[in-house]
Design goal:
Helices cover about 30% and strands about 30% of the residues. It is α/β, with parallel strands linked by helices. The chain has one domain (about 5-240): Rossmann fold. α6 (about 120-130) runs parallel beside α8 (about 195-205). The longest helix is centred in the middle third of the chain and has 11 residues, at about 120-130.
C-alpha cells in the first residue's frame, strides 16, 4: 500500500489540532457550499472516498442513508472515525485507486479534499462510474487548480510581511507538486480545471453544479482576515450525476 502523510505521527498530531478536525463539518470553511450540493441521502447507499475522520459518513447516516461505507488510506484517521462515529458505518482501509467495490452498489459517492492526492484521475472516475447506479450522484471537493498550480500554496509577501499576491505558475504542467502543509512536506497532484471537468464528461457524468466557495458575510464579520480568501479560490466543489 502506498505511503501517506496522514499516518505520520507528527503530521497526524498537527492535523488533529486543526479546527476542521476538532469541530468536524462546521469547522470546514467549504462545508456550507458542499452541503448545499449534496443529494437527499434518505434511503440511499453512500460511499465516502477519502473519508478521514468520518464526519461526512456520520452526516449521511443521520440523514437517512440505509448504508454508508467510508474508504481511506490512513489507519490513524480510520481509528478515530471508528471511535467517534456510528457503528452502522463500514470503514475500509484501502487507497481510493485500488479499493475493490462491486458495480452498481451505491446511489451516492462523495469525496472531500481527496482527489488532489490522486494522480490517475480519469481512471478513478471510471471506477466510480461503475460503482454508481444509473442516476446516481457523485459530489466532491478538491483544492482549486489555482491553489495547486505553483506548488508552494502560500502567499507572496513584501519586506514587511504584508500579503502582495498569490503565486500562479506552471498551471498547464499537470502532475506532482511538493508543498508544505502544517510544516511538513506533502505530495499532491495538480490538475487543471479542464482536466477535472472534461474527465467527468468523457467518463459519462452529467455536471450539475460547479462552485468556488467563498467565506460568508457572517464569517467575514467574525474574522476580517478571511477577506484575503476573496483574493483567490482555494477549493472547487463539483456535483455530477451518472447518465
Amino acid at each position: 500500500m502506498k505511503k501517506n502523510i496522514y499516518d505520520d505521527p507528527v503530521f497526524f498530531n498537527k492535523y488533529s489540532q486543526m479546527e476542521r478536525s476538532i469541530k468536524g463539518l462546521e469547522g470546514a470553511g467549504e462545508w456550507t457550499t458542499l452541503e448545499s450540493m449534496l443529494p437527499d441521502f434518505s434511503g440511499k447507499r453512500v460511499l465516502d472516498l477519502g473519508c478521514g475522520f468520518g464526519w461526512h459518513c456520520q452526516y449521511a447516516v443521520e440523514r437517512g442513508a440505509t448504508s454508508v461505507v467510508g474508504v481511506d488510506i490512513s489507519e490513524r484517521m480510520l481509528a478515530v472515525a471508528k471511535e467517534k462515529t456510528s457503528e452502522e458505518i463500514v470503514y475500509v482501509h484501502e487507497p481510493i485507486e485500488t479499493v475493490n467495490i462491486a458495480q452498481s452498489s451505491f446511489d451516492v459517492v462523495i469525496s472531500s479534499l481527496a482527489f488532489h492526492y490522486i494522480e490517475p484521475f480519469e481512471g478513478v472516475l471510471g471506477r466510480i462510474y461503475s460503482w454508481l447506479v444509473g442516476g446516481g450522484d457523485l459530489v466532491f471537493s478538491v483544492e482549486h487548480p489555482i491553489f495547486t498550480s505553483e506548488g508552494i500554496q502560500d502567499w507572496c509577501y513584501d519586506t514587511n510581511g504584508n500579503i502582495r499576491h498569490f503565486p500562479v505558475d506552471n498551471y498547464f504542467y499537470e502532475g506532482r507538486r511538493e508543498t508544505r502543509f502544517l510544516g511538513e512536506r506533502v505530495l499532491k497532484y495538480h490538475k487543471t480545471l479542464t482536466t477535472y471537468l472534461n474527465s467527468l464528461i468523457q467518463v459519462g457524468f452529467e455536471i450539475t453544479g460547479v462552485v468556488e466557495p467563498q467565506p460568508s458575510e457572517s464569517m467575514l464579520e467574525l474574522d476580517a482576515s478571511l477577506r484575503n480568501e476573496l483574493r483567490r479560490p482555494m477549493v472547487l466543489v463539483v456535483s455530477t450525476r451518472k447518465r
